[in-house]
Amino acid sequence: MSVIIAPSILSCDFGNLERDFQLINRSQADWFHVDVMDGVFVPNISFGFPIIEALKKVAEKPLDVHIMIANPDQFIAQFAKSGADILTVHYEVCPHLHRTIAGIKEAGMKAGVALNPHTPVSVLENVIAELDLVLIMSVNPGFGGQKFIQQAVEKVRQTKALIQASGSSALIEVDGGVNTTTGAALVAAGADALVAGSFVFNNPDPTAVIASLKAL
Ligand code: DX5
Ligand code: ZN
User: Fold this and answer.
1) Domains along the chain?
2) pLDDT band at 1 (very low <50, low <70, confident <90, very high)
3) Cα gap 123→187, rounded to integer Å
4) Most buried of 7, 90, 136, 208, CB within 10 angstroms?
5) Is 38 a catalytic residue?
């Protein structure tokens, strides 16, 4: 199976959002990656439900929603209503992670858990069977355009081993500093999905960049 490509709309031109959404629709991308930041869990604020609802109206591909917020349980129902297909929460803010994962699935979405660069893969041992997606952060969340943290490659290998040992069908996604070089190493290590923001949208030809990632 070819690698799933999820361009991050955080790096879109916010004055021309529909143009960039349509660009993703017409490209070889598989998902829209949607980064929601609350200014509490991460030191930045991005956007909320109105943007997701506007995207859902035009999106012809699934919405992969990555929420970097301190209290995800409070908003699960609203993300489902806004059109999220996959909802990924951060391990670091979920004291009752098993319950949160169940809540996401009961709301009709696929459930993902993201791990910050300092969080070991082993914390997922007892929930991996419940998960649809593991998101390995290869930067500290909060901003696009940061430098790739190389240790993410090893964490992808560890996640792959955990998934295989448990019989889980979870996909492994990696987010932060992805380009064709880091992306190739991640795919070789077992990544199923790559998020890319600045690498795609800081290029004059985002469609071609998406195609180059898809070919990895
Ligand atoms: C970072 C976000 C990423 C970000 C990636 O907190 O979760 O999805 O948009 O941006 P790049 O690809 O520029 O590192
Ligand atoms: Zn993200």
Assistant:
1) 4-214 (3.20.20.70)
2) confident
3) 23
4) 7
5) no
